TrEMBL record, chain A:
Name used for this protein in its record: ABC transporter ATP-binding protein
Signal peptide positions on this chain: none
InterPro entries per UniProt: AAA+_ATPase, ABC_transporter-like_ATP-bd, ABC_transporter-like_CS, ABC_transporter_ATP-binding, P-loop_NTPase
Major localization listed first in the record, in broad terms: membrane
Keywords assigned: Antibiotic resistance, ATP-binding, Nucleotide-binding, Transport
Molecular function GO terms recorded: ATP binding; ATP hydrolysis activity
Taxonomic placement: Bacteria, Bacillati, Actinomycetota, Actinomycetes, Micrococcales
From TrEMBL, chain B:
Keywords, comma-separated and alphabetical: Membrane, Transmembrane, Transmembrane helix
Organism annotation: Cellulosimicrobium arenosum
Highest taxon in the source lineage: Bacteria
Pfam families, per database record: DUF6297
Protein name: Uncharacterized protein
Spans through the membrane: 48-73, 102-124, 145-174, 180-201, 208-230, 242-262, 342-371, 408-428, 435-455, 495-523
Amino acid sequence: MTGPGGTDGAAGPVVVARGLRVGYGDVAVCGPVDLALAPGEVLAVVGPNGSGKSTVLKTVLGRLDALGGIVEVLERPVDERERAFRARVAGVGDDDAYFPGLSVREHLVLLARGHGVDQAGTVVDEVMAMFGITSRADAAPTELSSGQRRRLLLATAFVRPRDVLVLDEPEQRLDPGTRRLVADLIAAEAARGVAVLLATHDPEVAARTGARGLLVGEDACTDVARDDLAGVLAAVR
Amino acid sequence: MTSTAAPDVGTDADEQLTGRELRRLTARVATWHARRAGHGAGRLVTDVAYVVVSVVLAALLVGGTVTAVGGALTSEQAWTLGAVLGGDPDPWTGGARPLSPGLVLLLVLCVLLGLVASTAARLGPAGVGTAGVHWWLPTPADRHGLLVVSIGRATGGGVVAGAVGGAAAGLLAAAGPTGVLTGALVGAPAAVAVVALTGLAQHRGSRAAVVVGDALVACVPVLGLALVATGWHLPVPAPSPTVTALVVALAVLAVVLVVVWWTRVDRLRLPVLAARSSGSDRLGAALLSVDPRDLGRALDAGAHPRRPLHGRTFRAVRGPRGALVAADAVLLVRTSSSWTQLLGVVALLVLAHQVPVLAAGPGLALVVALAGMRAAGLGAGGARHAEMVPALDASLPLSARAVRAVRLVVPAATGALALVAGIVPVALATGSAGWLVLAALGGVGCGASAVRGALRPEPDWSGPLLATPMGALPVNAAAVARQGPDLLLLSLLPFTIAALLGAVTPVLVVVQALAAAAAVAIATRVPRRG
């Protein structure tokens, strides 16, 4: 296991893509993706709006079929139907939907119980406190503000087990303080050996998580060294 | 936030919930909340009783109507006011021979199975809803346990739709109790088999099943037309060992297909389930609302426009009006299911001329109204979408009134073209071009009614509830749902009079033009705020 942002390669990569083509229908949205992400690493997928960052993440999570190439998670081709995949890979996107009649806390407890989490209620309470939504525990998710709903979505990744964490622009709709703390949380996840793949536009998130980068382009996707990532993010448009 | 590290999460394999347990836990929590809110067992009993009474009353009403329509379909002569009054020396009263009952039964069963296939494909048929996709599917719970309920629901829906539709087909064919029973016994297993087949093909995506179902529905009138033209006659099959064997074989096939579907359902991948989840959610919400727009949107969910191979340059477009018309036209052109349905509407109109009771008089007026409403509705897809996303129209430098007028162009064109094409046999039979003019103007009115319906305000739930034998009716919401159909009746009134008289007069043409103009004026009127 490596430290935050570590790339010493002590463990083999848990997320691998080789010549991966992603898109909708049969139209690729970006160049072929090549990446390798080891436990304890943070990889930030960066690029302008519409470049295909979210599409790459959805394909890694099995929420979209790959158009071609290879994508493996935990040393197996991505198949989100496998129990082990769902038990070990956590993903947070931007879309949400809720069960009518269930409160914020109940949604999280349900998810934790579904994963067989010990002391599910206690874990959920701690994560809700961490994200500052304890006071809204009994509210319906639809009653939350946009930012609070974002916190709820992020909380779903932390009430369940995970070896791979995939986050699509986790900084979205968050106030600056919460954004910094989410970045620190991600760094802490990497420190405990979780492989984190995220899409981001935020130089501060990239810096605080110690991420290296992958710049998604129309014709090709290129690696970005950790030290160059802030500059690349600033230049992206 | 109080900490920068998430708590440690330990798991116990014995505590991991199965799909069934997860589903039941969710339902238990929701039920507990419902009870706390006063929706307990008593409320449940009342609701069930209400539904049972409503269903029985609806069945009686539909049964009576279908029987009357069935009797009329196989009658020899249409009723017209012209024939009664004797004003016109040669009023149009139709002239075709009636359809044979067996043919009616066969065609209606084909339509039923096409509708079942396309509806099942649009709604799943297997699925867990959008909330289930977000909160159940990411867990290690087995997918089979989560999806099995939707299999039961879809199979039950197939049984009911097939049995009721098959019985209705028998009634429509005026085939007597034997025909009704045969229709129900054939319809139920056939519909279940179609649902199961759609389920087995779900992993490939729903588009093919939707297109096949829509095409089948659209082709039935064409097929009927061909069979009538060739003088094909089909009696209703009498009870016999062959019919019994057919029903048993269909039932066995349906059971086998459902079992195979049940064993394979856990192979469905998340992208497929996510794509279908919103359709079923939307249908559930639509059934709770009085607004038929939501129902249309839910059932149209699988009919996405195709992705263009080459983007259009829109060189001919000049100004915001042209842009809106071009957008509506491109949507129509790229939605293949709309084209197949338009073709079916025209074929249905032409086929109606082969059915004496529908070839003239009130039958002709009714068929033209239904065909015009559907054809214009297919052209109003852009307006319906704009109602959901008002920012689209607001982004152009046009007044709300002008937007409504422009949004009317495509539905008026589809309505007019379908009615004119469909009324050609009457014009040829009577030698009067006046029918074509009436149909074109009536089609414009249908377009106006489609736009008025698409852009009607949201239902107002604040008004009182009116108790009816069919259930409580929110008065204000129902009043909003009336907008659109009201204009259809107004704009087709002159055509209806012509159909009743069996002749087109210059006065009726003028009145029809005035009715179309009035319909356009009403449809483009912007409601006051507040």
